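Deliverable D4.2, example record:
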Amino acid sequence: MTVLYLFDIDGTLLDAHGSGRGAFDAVFAEHHGIANASEGIRYGGKTDPAIVEEIFLARMGRAPTAAEHAAFVEAYLPRLRSQLAAQGVRVLEGVVATLELLARLGHVRLGVATGNIRAGADAKLAAAGLHPWFELGGYGCDSPKRAELVATAIERGRARGEVREVVVVGDTIHDIAAARACGATVCAVATGSDSADKLRDADVVFRTMSELPAWHAARFG
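Output generated by the structure prediction step:
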């Protein structure tokens, strides 16, 4: 049976140098005339739809309408791609070597579980050169709730064949909580917004992704 790995993106696989935040702020300034709208709002571990709603509540005192949300997302994507092109993307330590190793193993399937909407996730992975590694995923456009998008990714993985174990890999307490809600094993990596101490409720905490291959070998052989 297959081991299904589901990786978070931002802070786990790559650092997009704030491109998502920059794109969100640009759209809010253009559409609603408020600069630096997401100042003071933490992005780590949250879904794009939840962040949009949080910004609206903080700056407008209300949730966005469905039309406002759709317009926001439509405007966000080209600005995200522009930000990624201008700022570049840094692939985090050990990520490529880990993906290369896992991809060679016949009992492993690779996917993502990310708060990014699908098109945003694809843009970030493509900018980092990581897109070819992943065959499925769960995204912020599947649900604003992280546990639900992880569950969707698991369903998509199981639709492709029997799954022995699901391993969620992320950098925030939100990744841990979502994995637990779905009955998945969780590996935390202290390369993002939450410290190793905050991540202690994971099954294992890595300093960098370079430590994952040895853990995989010890657990699965």
